[in-house]
Design brief:
This protein has 5 domains: about 25-180, no CATH class; about 185-245; about 320-405, Threonyl-tRNA Synthetase, Chain A, domain 2 (2-Layer Sandwich), CATH 3.30.980; about 415-690, 3-Layer(aba) Sandwich (Rossmann fold); about 725-790, Winged helix-like DNA-binding domain superfamily/Winged helix DNA-binding domain (Arc Repressor Mutant, subunit A, Orthogonal Bundle). By secondary structure, the protein is α/β, with parallel strands linked by helices. Helix 4 packs across helix 5 (about 145-180) and helix 16 packs parallel to helix 19. The chain has 26 helices and 15 strands. The strands form 3 sheets. It has a 9-stranded mixed sheet with strand order 6-5-14-13-12-7-11-10-8. A 4-stranded antiparallel sheet has the order 1-2-4-3. Strands 9-15 form a two-stranded parallel sheet. The chain binds adenosine-5'-triphosphate (ATP). It is a multi-pass membrane protein. Pfam families: FtsK_4TM, FtsK_alpha, FtsK_gamma, FtsK_SpoIIIE.
């Protein structure tokens, strides 16, 4: 699966290998004519069997003896073949087999589509069996009409169903066949009868007028009418089957006949279904899908087994026990505290979650909500518990919520989250079981919809466990072909376990040894490489005329995109950065710019970012980053300011730690107890996956060649190259900011052209380096250039 890509755009991809049974032209000629001749041989032997079969019967037991003579036109082989097919097989229906063999020869010889031949064999065999049973129904002995098969099946059926039952079953078989094979419908049959009835009436009236007309004649005419009507219907159906594209809306109008009576006088309008017109590529794709089925990206690791649920631990303390005393105590204290501040309560309701209990309060009429909100700290103090959070009002309800931590918190195991119906049955693209809400429901979100996630929390509050929960969820739901991770772990300890699944699930730069990135300079290269991957993917999507990765992959699976044109199945890529603060402190803009670019653009092409940080201060989570990460998770933080930085509001400072978190996707804040997955569990899962057959290498990202070092952008005007002006003119005229253009036009070496581009960037004439693409030219024309240079 891992494919090497370079930033020099599409390298021709390997042709998709599809299992096929290919014969050379010579082989086709030999094999095809063999089948045709064999078909003829069978036919001759069968015909001859009707004349010579009885005489030859006795000779069959002496087959090897040369003295015994057989009468069949094809002698011993003919006698044996026809005995095998007709006597011991399917009776006269065996002629159909001869026909099918003959037809197969023609198909091979003329290279006609195999799928149609398969259909002929399928239906042909069914007719053979039906005919054999049908003929067997009328014969008392094992005779040549129905053959042994027909006779035996009949006697079996008649034992269980009797003669009537068997004949009804045969009729049912015939109806089913006609309906499926020729699309005969009830309407077509009733129409047939109607026209027959009409004809009979016609005949009868004729008869009245002209008594000399023979009754026989009338009946034969009627039969003729039935036959033609039936043939017309069959013909129509055949046309429909063979050429659905030509079907259009048609209005069928029955012209009223002269002797119309009430029943038939109405004009019947039948609107036929419009079949979508297929384009040429659709036809090819449909044929490919018909022959080989949909493209299956998981085929290369077809035997891959998802980790079983048993690898995850269950806890005794998982079920929530209601402590009535605690509830009563908290309720009394809430009522008491609020009454101290003259806030009356109309009603109170408790919802017990895994770590906190939510008390929903309906205050007396006329009490202002802001008053309660202002008393938050006082209420917390008198309830003497850490982590009181007041939600006033609860969005969507007219109540006020007070969340009080439980004395004995229960653990939400990863086992319970993963095994939940919500997660197992989810149809999301990248489902993540984060944990349980306060009302004890498993909380599952789609990473693809987020589309990027920012995670923050003070040290020891459950961030690493949270990241593991995200990764574990994806490992339990996505095949290695469908998702790839890029793991950045400057702490060098948290994500090391995932090394074992490098060749299944990880992506890396082509020249790097370790897939998990611990070094800051490598992060910069990886991020830039990811930007190139993004550009490449956008190019593929544009060529395929798709708006997003799921449309693109669906089209690829339906074989509508040609792998020879660079198309391939695109796995989702999830970039996980543990400890973002460290990165941004050491690399600053170099990291921020590609992250922001990816965050802005990568959602449609299946690249999703998850960044986690201990220090949620504004110089780490900058405005740009924040603007592009609408989905955020906050574990407990130490100050209100930190909480505001992550969530744009307080609350995270009042959490109780150990996986207690707030999740927001831009609007509401949801309190969740994060599912707990321990290091030994992750180890078991990665061991389980790591022990299975893997791809030859990790998924390779495009190569990224870092910018030439030593380019400083603050180049003095005096230090400019003597060709600076000419270079600027060339670039502005061509509206293309590339060094190679300067090399060609001004006949320069690579280094000088590169220096000129840097100087042009410093002068604000071209934009910054953009990976594989040419730089943007910021000056629209030469007049603007003159004005720009004069103003310097
Ligand atoms: N969801 C959870 N349920 C129960 N306990 C948890 C949960 N998450 C974390 N803990 C407890 O908190 C401890 C610290 O968690 P974790 O290692 O994830 O913290 P962290 O925020 O990543 O810390 P650091 O930033 O120092 O790595 C865990 O060892 C565990 O005992």
């Amino acid at each position: 699966m891992a494919k090497k890509k370079t930033n020099t755009k599409k390298t021709p991809k390997k042709k998709l290998k599809l299992p096929s049974f290919n014969l050379s032209s010579q082989q086709k000629l030999v094999f095809g004519s063999f089948l045709i001749i064999f078909g003829v041989v069978l036919c001759i032997a069968f015909v001859s069997f009707f004349f010579t079969g009885e005489i030859d019967q006795s000779t069959l037991s002496n087959f090897s003896s040369r003295e015994v003579k057989t009468q069949n036109w094809l002698r011993k082989s003919g006698a044996w073949l026809s005995d095998f097919f007709i006597q011991r097989g399917f009776g006269v229906a065996s002629f159909i087999f001869a026909g099918l063999v003959f037809l197969s020869g023609i198909y091979v010889l003329m290279n006609l589509p195999k799928s149609r031949l398969r259909k002929h064999w399928f239906w042909g065999t069914l007719i053979v069996i039906w005919l054999s049973v049908f003929f067997g129904f009328f014969s008392q002995t094992n005779d040549i009409l129905g053959g042994t098969v027909g006779f035996e099946i009949n006697s079996l059926l008649q034992d269980y169903l009797g003669k009537v039952g068997t004949s009804l079953l045969l009729l049912f078989g015939l109806i089913t066949y006609l309906a499926i094979r020729f699309g005969v419908t009830f309407e077509s049959i009733s129409k047939l009868f109607k026209s027959a009835k009409k004809d009979i009436k016609h005949e009868l009236s004729d008869l009245k007028e002209d008594t000399y007309v023979a009754v026989d004649n009338a009946l034969s005419d009627e039969a003729e009418a039935i036959k033609t009507a039936f043939e017309i219907q069959l013909e129509e159906n055949k046309k429909k089957q063979s050429n659905p594209a030509k079907e259009n809306i048609s209005i069928e109008v029955d012209t009223p006949s002269e002797e119309n009576n009430d029943e038939e006088s109405g004009i019947e309008i039948k609107v036929e279904q419009i079949a979508e017109e297929l384009s040429e590529t659709d036809n090819l794709a449909n044929k490919l899908v018909e022959d080989f089925g949909q493209f299956d990206p998981t085929l290369e690791l077809g035997k891959y087994q998802f980790p079983p649920l048993e690898l995850l631990k269950k806890y005794d303390t998982e079920s929530i026990t209601i402590n009535q005393e605690e509830l009563e105590e908290n309720k009394n204290r809430i009522v008491e505290t609020l009454s101290n501040y003259k806030i009356g309560i109309a009603s109170i309701k408790a919802t017990i979650g895994p770590t906190v209990t939510l008390y929903e309060i309906v205050p007396d009429a006329g009490i202002r909500i802001s008053k309660i909100k202002n008393l938050e700290d006082d209420i917390a103090l008198s309830l003497s518990a850490l982590g009181i959070r007041i939600i006033a009002p609860i969005p969507g309800k007219g109540t006020i919520g007070i969340e009080v931590p439980n004395k004995n918190a229960t653990i939400v195991s990863m086992h319970s989250a993963i095994s939940s119906k919500k997660f197992q049955g989810s149809k999301m693209q990248l489902p993540i079981a984060l944990g349980k809400t306060i009302s004890n429901e498993t909380f599952v979100v789609d990473l693809a919809k987020m589309p990027h996630l920012l995670m923050a929390g003070a040290t020891g509050q459950g961030k690493s466990v949270g990241l593991n929960a995200v990764l574990t969820s994806l490992l339990y739901k996505k095949h290695p072909a469908e998702v790839k991770f890029i793991l950045v772990d400057p702490k060098k300890v948290e994500l090391t376990l995932y090394n074992k699944i490098e060749r299944h699930y990880l992506a890396k730069l082509p020249d790097s040894e370790e897939a998990i990135i611990t070094d800051n300079t490598k992060v910069i290269n990886t991020l830039n490489s990811l930007c190139i991957e993004m550009d490449n993917r956008y190019e593929l999507l544009k060529n395929a005329m798709c708006r997003n990765i799921s449309e693109y992959n669906a089209k690829f699976k339906a074989r509508k995109l040609n792998p020879n044109e660079g198309h391939q199945f695109l796995p989702y890529i999830v970039l996980v950065v543990d400890e973002f603060a460290d990165l941004i402190m050491t690399a600053g803009k170099e990291v921020e710019t590609p992250i922001a670019r990816l965050a802005q653009l990568a959602r449609a092409i299946g690249i999703h970012l998850i960044i986690a940080t201990q220090r949620p201060s504004v110089n780490v989570i900058t405005g740009i980053i924040k603007a592009n990460f609408p989905a955020r998770i906050a574990f407990r933080v130490t100050s209100k300011i930190d909480s505001r930085t992550i969530l744009d509001g307080s609350g995270a400072d009042q959490l109780i730690g150990r996986g207690d978190m707030l999740f927001t996707q831009g609007n509401d804040m949801i309190r969740i107890q994060c599912a707990f997955v321990d290091t030994p569990e992750v180890e078991k899962i990665t061991d389980y996956i790591g022990a299975q057959k893997a791809y030859p290498d990790a998924y390779l990202l495009p190569e990224y060649v870092g910018e030439e070092s030593g380019t400083s952008l603050d180049i003095d005007i005096e230090d400019r190259d003597s060709l600076f002006k000419e270079a600027a003119i060339v670039i502005v005229t061509a509206q293309q900011g590339s060094a190679s253009l300067l090399q060609r036009k001004l006949k320069l070496g690579y280094n000088r052209a590169g220096r000129l581009i840097d100087q042009l960037e410093a002068a604000g004439i071209v934009g910054p380096f953009e990976g594989s693409k040419a730089r943007q030219v910021l000056i629209p024309d030469l007049t603007a250039l003159d004005a720009h240079l004069e103003n310097e």
